[in-house]
Amino acid sequence: MNDTTVFGLTMLVVGMGGTLATLFLITIVIRLLCAFFPVRPDDKEEKK
Amino acid sequence: MSDAILSALGALFEGVRFLFSNGGPNVIMIAVACVMFWLAIAKGVEPLLLLPIGFGCLLVNLPLSEVMQADGVLKTLYDFGIGNELFPLLIFVGIGSMTDFSPLLANPRLLLFGAAGQLGIFITLLLALALGFSKEEAVSVAAIGACDGPTVIYVSNMFAGMDRIPTAMVGALAVAAYSYMALVPVIQPPIMRLLTTRKEREVKMPSPKGKISKAALIAFPIVVTVITGIVAPKGLPLMGMIMLGNFMKVTGVVPRLASAAENEIANISTLFLGLAIGGTMAGPQFLTRETLMVFGLGLVAITIDTVGGILLGKLWYLLSGGKVNPLVGAAGISAYPMAARLVQNEGQRWNKHNYLLMHAMAANTGGQIGSVMAAAIMLSLLKGLGII
User: Fold this and answer.
1) Tally of structural domains, chain B
2) Which of B306, B299, B297 has the alpha carbon at shortest distance from B118?
3) Per the domain annotation, does B55 fall within a domain?
């Protein structure tokens, strides 16, 4: 494989894989955030 | 005396002489500017961008125009805010303050659609390389798949600043990106119908349960900024500015700043960015075979983005036993909130009791994060490979 093809495939595999992995990490972090910071009564009142 | 008068008159008609001698490309670009005006005014297609871009294009293509020469007004704007990527970043602050991430926080797994919706970026990169574009040009063209004008301008201009791509290509990329963003309602529905069955399109998804605390909403932009900084530091300015805008909004303690980011800053930056980008569209440099290829590849990028999102939706539909509507995957692009509304409309078209909007909004905000993350990761990979 020539240099350009190697570059393109590297970007595809690592780029797409990296994006997917990072966003998956963020979904876990969001779940943790929602668990650590649950809705409290004053939040609900504020929304009202 | 008569010689002086004739010379003076000759100077006045120099522009006309230029148009008739070698002004063909300029005339074509003036026509392109008029088409942009027509789209913006008569059709309402991205008027905020196409109007100033069109006017910049008109100004730079008038015969003997000096607006893009040293100290010219558009060149000054270009150097002030595009050459150093300032304007796209300021627009990102505004976008962040306009975005509501609470549907995403209520249903975080939909963020994965934001990753699938970036497939077009990387496939287009391969195609562009195969068509003979240089690595930097291919990355810039692929960025159109982010469905996000400021990201495209940020990435491509970085390469233009290093003289790795022609400056005129930045204009072509920006116009292609904004045009295709405006055409999302035309591009996406046929793909949605082609790739899904009627049964899949009719799937009802229950409303997301659970409210999000203010503390979680405040912590979210900080956490995403930190993760981006660690994983893909080259893209930190992009993500950091979006999250700054959102942070100002959700804290609620700086309403004036949040309002300024959403209105004055975003509006002024959009005007200056549009004019300066239009200024890069000088006919002789713009009218090339590469420009046509950029437009073609841009369409491919957005099409594959949509396909990627829907295919993940179909996989999810199978794995969940038919509980996820694959149409939601089409919202995993950055065109916010247009893509989410399209999914809602398409869902209701096949099942009048279907309310997919909140799920689609979650996927759509996921698409915003995903597009910036993909660009950030691409830039960091390029640095790792020693290309930038």
Assistant:
1) 1
2) B306
3) no
> What ipTM does this complex have?
0.88
Residue B102 counted as domain residue: yes
- Nearest residue in chain A measured CA to CA from B252: A46
Prediction pTM value: 0.86
Residue B352 in domain: yes
Which residues, in sequence order, are CB contacts of B6 under 8 Å at separation 6+?
none
Partner residue opposite A30 with nearest CB, options B108, B373, B378: B108
Among candidate residues B110, B306, B340, B304, the one with its CA nearest the CA of residue B193: B306
- Scanning every residue of chain A, which has its alpha carbon at the shortest distance from the alpha carbon of B374? A19
**Residue B342 has which token pair?**
């399209």
Domain extent at residue B192: 70-384
Residue B179: which pLDDT band, with cuts at 50, 70 and 90? confident
| CB–CB contact A23 B112 (8 Å) | yes
Residue B301 touches partner A, C-beta closer than 8 Å: no
Query: Using CA of residue B264, residue B266, residue B267, residue B268, what is the dihedral sign?
Result: positive
- Rounded to the nearest 5°, which phi and psi values hold at B163? 60, 30
Average pLDDT over residues A15-44: 88
